[in-house]
Automatic annotation (TrEMBL):
Keywords: Hydrolase
Sequence ranges assigned to domain Isochorismatase-like in this UniProt record: 13-165
Positions of transmembrane segments: none
Name this polypeptide is given: Hydrolase
Keyword Hydrolase: yes
Protein's organism: Tardiphaga alba
One Pfam match: Isochorismatase
A GO molecular-function descriptor: hydrolase activity
CDD domains: YcaC_related
Keyword Hydrolase: yes
Amino acid sequence: MSALNHLLQPEQCAVLLIDHQAGLAFGVESIDRQTLLNNTIALSRTAGTFNIPIIASTSATKVYSGPIMPAIAQYLPDVHPIDRRSMNVWEDDAARTAIERTGRRRLIVSGLLTEACVSFAVLSALADGYEVFVVGDACGGLSERSHDLAMRRMEAAGAQMTSWIQVLLEMQRDWTRRDTYEGARAIVEAHGGGYGIGLAYARDMIHPI
């Protein structure tokens, strides 16, 4: 086993986006909704930059939740969301099969709501032997307390907690990796707050002597 196997490698991972729908986002109180949207877009763009398969699943699109939020969907042009009746992705044959077909055993998960559709899928995937990384700042819960409790339960079951920026930097790891440099840098500049401002400044203002 490689000494670096503990770090995320693009070729080992798949991204699972669960129920990033406006009808559910209305109920999110654990994180500012615009921040949640920003972070989910950044994660989606990261998956695209590193050629990581994305499985997107939705629930109750026609009766309550609506489609994937358009601001996110625009970064998923080749992804066809799988609509479910069950709250648990793992109990939906089509969604679970789509995940299995990627052949990837490391799942990077984000979604709504943390207390239900996210935690149910994560706990089920762990039970099936997947290694699961939950992007906590791209998940939303009904309250800070209930979100935190759900995160703690998933972590206790073996899930690893992370953030979108850590996922991106872990995939890139070396800014001399030219194939993904421009894409990764653009994501950080657009979505990375002060860090992104710093990268833009360095690009435009700092020149080697």
